């Protein structure tokens, strides 16, 4: 490609540049758009996700999904345990990734015995907990968002939901739905 470019005239290069602009961006910039996860709302079960054995995906008329019929739930079982739900996507060079997700909290707790830590691990940046949600998260669906920022190289980004529960002080269930991964 470089050899080709050096042999064409400046006038042709100018034509190519203006032609590219008027017919949409060339492929180098095209990936920075749209939602890129195949199963953001768990309608296809845990496809595209790595889910711990106690994470169930269900449709429940008493506790309906935010959209569709399914969601991921870290159910309050009043046992001491932790569970992890995560997924990894590729972030093309020069793109920003925004992860948006909804959480609903059902609880009998009045302290932070049980929690849901939401993290975003990005190539070149130390993994970090972005949100630490607990009993006071609210019984209605609430949306949260976190972003990677941009870089000049392709990266991977792993979003993780780690629930930790301690037995004997009440129970908290965390429901998660519509985890979208949008490039810009
Ligand atoms: Ca759903």
Structure described in brief:
With 184 residues, the protein is mainly beta. It is built from two helices and eleven strands, in the order H-H-E-E-E-E-E-E-E-E-E-E-E. The strands form two sheets. Strands 1, 3, 4, 6, 9 and 11 form a six-stranded antiparallel beta sheet that branches. It has a five-stranded antiparallel beta sheet with strand order 2-5-10-7-8, with no helix packed on it.
Specify the number of helices. Answer: 2
Tell me about the biggest sheet?
Answer: 6 strands, antiparallel
Strand content: 35-45%
Oligomeric status of the shown chains?
single chain
The general outline is globular
Write down the overall mean pLDDT. 84
Q: Give the fraction of residues assigned to helices.
A: 10-25%
Radius of gyration: 21 Å
**Strand segment tally:** 11
Instruction: List bound small molecules.
Output: calcium ion
Distance between the termini: 27 Å
Query: pLDDT under 50 segments (min length 5)?
Result: 1-26
Q: H/E element string?
A: HHEEEEEEEEEEE
* Derived structural class: mainly beta
How would you describe this structure to a colleague?
- By secondary structure, the protein is mainly β.
- The chain is built from 2 helices and 11 strands; from the N terminus they run ααβββββββββββ.
- The strands form 2 sheets. Strands 1, 3, 4, 6, 9 and 11 form a 6-stranded antiparallel β-sheet that branches. Strands 2-5-10-7-8 form a 5-stranded antiparallel β-sheet, with no helix packed on it.
- A hairpin with a 2-residue loop joins strand 7 and strand 8 (125-133).
- The longest helix is centred in the N-terminal third of the chain and has 13 residues, at 10-22.
- It is globular.
- Residues 1-26 have low confidence and may be disordered.
- The site of calcium ion (CA) has 9 residues, from loops.
